[in-house]
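cache lookup: miss for this entity combination. No prior model stored, computing from scratch. Input as submitted by user K.M.:
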Amino acid sequence: MLDSDEFFETFGKLDDLTYSDGVIPKKYKELTGLSISILTRCEECILYHIQGCLAEKATRQEIIEAIKIGVMGGGSITYPSARLAFKTLKDLKVID
Amino acid sequence: MLDSDEFFETFGKLDDLTYSDGVIPKKYKELTGLSISILTRCEECILYHIQGCLAEKATRQEIIEAIKIGVMGGGSITYPSARLAFKTLKDLKVID
Amino acid sequence: MLDSDEFFETFGKLDDLTYSDGVIPKKYKELTGLSISILTRCEECILYHIQGCLAEKATRQEIIEAIKIGVMGGGSITYPSARLAFKTLKDLKVID
Amino acid sequence: MLDSDEFFETFGKLDDLTYSDGVIPKKYKELTGLSISILTRCEECILYHIQGCLAEKATRQEIIEAIKIGVMGGGSITYPSARLAFKTLKDLKVID
Amino acid sequence: MLDSDEFFETFGKLDDLTYSDGVIPKKYKELTGLSISILTRCEECILYHIQGCLAEKATRQEIIEAIKIGVMGGGSITYPSARLAFKTLKDLKVID
Amino acid sequence: MLDSDEFFETFGKLDDLTYSDGVIPKKYKELTGLSISILTRCEECILYHIQGCLAEKATRQEIIEAIKIGVMGGGSITYPSARLAFKTLKDLKVID
């Protein structure tokens, strides 16, 4: 549904374009996307951007720094989201 | 006041640490900080992170990409914040 | 609990009144409620207002336009909520 | 700046399209835009959508109902925004 | 306007009731209101609840603790709001 | 993971400190934490602070007043969170 509709198609393309390689490399954009996902406490976005980070070969430490930026900006109400991110990293064997 | 109090001192140091050079270079952290500032529509944060971006020699184009990430994530209610960011860049002669 | 307490009773009545037929017809208020639910990413509110829209005979196309208003205003972090709305419409056989 | 850049051009067009006449008349979309602006406490958005409402011949009473929907959804932290909306309506001689 | 309209009258009364003396003393409710105002970054709310705190004889230290709760919950994007609160306390000679 | 990392250790300690007994008793801080959790619609935070309230011997009525402060501040989009809080209180036999 979201894909075949012109609005969502344009919106989706714009989102893809925003996160594609530019003067800021895609890896850093995905890390930013993860920080934003933590800060806005968007669970699906966390999973999506963790996969994006891994696809761009972001390291475990880079991903953890991105999570911290989200927590620092958004405060302790983002803790459950940070925990979800760490659980996901564990499930994906990125961390122990 | 905020500086001499132990809570704010620790909180401030943690924030500085989060945005300092790490496995993610400080430049990309400041750009992320700008994306977050746009998305959360925090005017003072926008000015603060634009200055951080410039201090880290982020280019005009990198700054603009960071603004776009904030707008894309946060939608049209972030437009006034994006406008403020562009106005600030203009005042600082970063853009024409 | 929420119903027998005076605060929640008054709050609930005020909410009902706000969404009842007025100079703005109830159908358009329910569509607005859906836009707001998408934008604020409130899952229960999405289900509630989709049912409200359908009860007021809002068409499939009107409901889709209301979802778009929410996504446009709130950006890509509302995507999971839009997806939930479309899934709900599918489950209710409103869309294919 | 925002107009000449392709991202902002596309984003802006998508926003215009979303708020243009559709199966939901533009008047009701502008009223929804006002409700959202109150709820998200976006001052510039409030001024923008009040003008949009007036351009679509929304009545004083319709505008007031839209403000109430925003306050009801977003709670007492939206009060300063509702006050700004009423002050704007007064300045524009829409209300006494 | 907001006072003479039935919706706003009821909403305002409900808000007054919520913040009036109950099993939680009004002083602690005002301090909670201040924490919420910091966390939601509502400038007018900050001024309003600081005055409420002072009217209830909250001490300087209690007010500062309430500000910290807001900052802790909402993260570094609440810093400008905390700064506004401290500036207000200074202007009111509550702190040096 | 979160505990052995220095950032999360410091952040967690700061959070614990903020919510510990001070000039504002811990009981009232936990009640404030609950109000904030309702307003920010953070489900895990609601469970966490309800337990904190109970550990501090907050009464049923105090907890209910704290929930109302959150709903009043955050509006009807917090209703699902209030419902979760009441369900939790029921499960814990705090209310019938």
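stored under new cache key. The helical segments of chain E are 6-18, 26-39, 43-55, 60-74, 79-91.
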